[in-house]
Amino acid sequence: MANIKQVAKQAGVSVATVSRFLNNKDYVSQEAKAAIERAIKDLNYRPNQVARSLTTKQTNLIGLIVPDITNPFFPQLARAVEDTALALGYTVVLCNSDEQQEKELHYIAMLRQTYVAGFIVASNLISEQSYLDLNIPVVALDRSPESLLPNVSTNNFEAAKLGASYLIERGAKHLICLRGTVDVASSNERVDGFLAAMTEAVDYEILIGDYGFDNAYKLMTTYLQQGKPVDGIFTCSDYAALGVLKAVKEAGLRVPEDIQIVGYDGIQLGELVPPGLTTVAQPVYNLGEQATRMLVNKLEGKDNPDTRIVLEASLCVRGTTK
Amino acid sequence: MANIKQVAKQAGVSVATVSRFLNNKDYVSQEAKAAIERAIKDLNYRPNQVARSLTTKQTNLIGLIVPDITNPFFPQLARAVEDTALALGYTVVLCNSDEQQEKELHYIAMLRQTYVAGFIVASNLISEQSYLDLNIPVVALDRSPESLLPNVSTNNFEAAKLGASYLIERGAKHLICLRGTVDVASSNERVDGFLAAMTEAVDYEILIGDYGFDNAYKLMTTYLQQGKPVDGIFTCSDYAALGVLKAVKEAGLRVPEDIQIVGYDGIQLGELVPPGLTTVAQPVYNLGEQATRMLVNKLEGKDNPDTRIVLEASLCVRGTTK
DNA sequence: TTGAAAGCGCTAACAC
DNA sequence: GTGTTAGCGCTTTCAA
C-alpha cells in the first residue's frame, strides 16, 4: 500500500500539501489538487487510519455494547445504530459482552486503546461511573431515564404499567411478573410499573430472572409444576416471554385461554410465534437512531440540550392475550 | 494515559528494555523486570495498540462478516466465534453487511486499514477472488465446501437431501423448495440436495427467495393464494421457515396436518415456535469454533493441513412434520 | 543484557 | 499556498 510520501513525490508536492488536501484544510491550489488527485488514483492510495489516529488520537469508531447478541432485540437495535452511524460517517464496532463483565471490560479496554470516539451502551454489567471515568462520550441505550449517562430509552415505568394493566383488563386475576436482574435500574422501573398496575382484585407474585430465554423457561417450568394458580404473566423482555410461552405450552396449558402473556420490547419474532406475542413494543429503530444521533452530536460538539430522550412504548396486541 | 517512555523513566531503564519486557523478547534481567512491573503498575500503563500496530503492521483483530444480524443463525454463530477467538487471544469485530455490498466493502476497507489480522466471512456478497486479493488470511464460514477459500461448512448437499427426504418419508407428495439467492454456491448445493431427494412419486416446485424472513413470508403468501396443492415445504434457512410458517398459518392451513415444513440451520428459536420447527440442524457452535481455529492456525503459521472442514448436519425432528 | 536511534504513516505547527 | 520538521507511542536493528 502506497503512503503519503509516495503520493507527494508523484504529485510533485510536499506531504503537508497532500495531508491538507486529504483533510480539506487550508488552501491548496487547483493545480496541486489536480496533481494529488491523479497521484492518489494512480497509486491507489488510501490514507492509513492507524497512523492518522496515532497522531490525532481520534477515530470515527463507535463502540456499541450489547449484553446478549442472541436476544433478538439487540440485533434489531444494532441494525438501527449501524444504519444511522454509517449515514453520519461513523463505523460501528459491535461488541457482545455476552453477560460477562470480563468480556465487556475487554472490549472497552481494546477500543479505548484504539481511540474509539465514543460508546453506546445497552448492557448493564459495568457501573455508570466506570463509563464516565472513560472520559469520552458515552450514551446509554435502553437503560434507565434516570441514568447518570446521557441516555435514550422508553419510559420503563409507564410502559410496564401499560402491559400489566392490559392483563388485568383482559381478566387476569393471578399474575406473575417475571423480572430481570435485580439492581438494574431499567429492570426495577419495569417492576415498579407492574406493581403500579396491580389492584385489590388481583394477586401477584414476582419472579426474579433475567432478560434471557433459558432462565425464563426454567423458572416458569418449575413454577408451573408447583400448581399454583396463574392466569397472567408479564415478562420484562420478549425473549423471556418466548421462554415462558414454551414452558406454558409444555405444561399443557392453553394460551391465552388458561394463561395470558404480555412481553416487553417488540421484537419482530413476536409476530411469528403463534399465537402472536402481545407485547409492550419499544420503538426499536427509533431508539437506536436517536442514541446514535445523540452520541454523534456530542462527538461533534454540537449544541445539544438533549441529554435524555424518553420515547413512548405502545401496546401491541396479538394472540397471547384474550 | 501513560506511555512507554514514562514507564522507562520511572523504572530507570530504556524504552527498548520496557518494550522487550512487554513482548517477552530477548533477555531482560530480573531487576529490570521487577522495576518495570512496578512502574507499569504505578502508572497504570497499558501499551498503545495503535502505535504498536503502526510499527508492526499487525493486530489481533479478527473481522467476522455476517450477511444479516437479524437472522438468528448469525448471532449464534458470532457467539461461538467470539468465544473461541477470545480464548485464543484475539478480538472479534462483528460486521453486519446487512445484505449490502457497499456496507461489506466499507467494513473490509476499514478493517484492512486497521491491519486486521484476518477475516471470517459468512456472507456471500463479494467474490471470493476479492477476498483472496486482500492477501491476508480469510476463512469462509457456512458457505460452500467447494469454495476457493479455506472453509468450514456443513455438507449442504447431503444435509438438504436429508431434510427433503424426510418430508417425502412422512408422506408429502407436493413439495416446494424455497431456495436462497441464486448463484450462491451453498444455496445451489442445498437445492441440488433437495432435487436429489425427489422421487417419481412426488412433484415439486422451486421458489427463489433468500435466507430472510420477509421474503419467505411474502413468497409463500402469494403462492398459497394461487391454490396449488402443497403439502411439504423445505426451506434453505430456519429464518425463512419461520416466514413460511406464518404464511401457512395465516392461510388457515394446519401444520403439520395440511402442510409439513422442514427448515435448515438449527437455530435455537426453532424449538420455541410452536409446534416446533423440524429442521436440518447444523452444528452451529462447532462451525464457529472450527472456523476460528482454522483462521488462527493460519495467522500463527501453524502446520495446518486443514483448509477445509466439512461437518455433518443432523435431522432435528419437531412438530412441523408428522 | 541494555541503550540510542531510526522509522512506521500521518498531522500540525511554524516558517517562508 | 506550500514545504520542513517535530512528534504521536511503539518496535527493532545496531552497538556497546
UniProtKB/TrEMBL annotation, chains A, B:
Stretches assigned to the HTH cro/C1-type domain: 5-46
The terms under GO molecular function for this entry are:
DNA-binding transcription factor activity; transcription cis-regulatory region binding
Which InterPro entries has this protein been placed in? Cro/C1-type_HTH, HTH_LacI, LacI/GalR-like_sensor, Lambda_DNA-bd_dom_sf, Peripla_BP_I
Q: Is the keyword Transmembrane in the record?
A: no
Keyword terms: DNA-binding, Repressor, Transcription, Transcription regulation
Domain named HTH lacI-type is located at: 2-56
Pfam families, alphabetized? LacI, Peripla_BP_3
- Among its keywords, does the record have Repressor? yes
Which SUPFAM superfamilies does the UniProt entry name for this protein?
lambda repressor-like DNA-binding domains, Periplasmic binding protein-like I
Which Gene3D superfamilies does this chain map to?
A: 3.40.50.2300, lambda repressor-like DNA-binding domains
Q: What is this protein called?
A: Uncharacterized protein
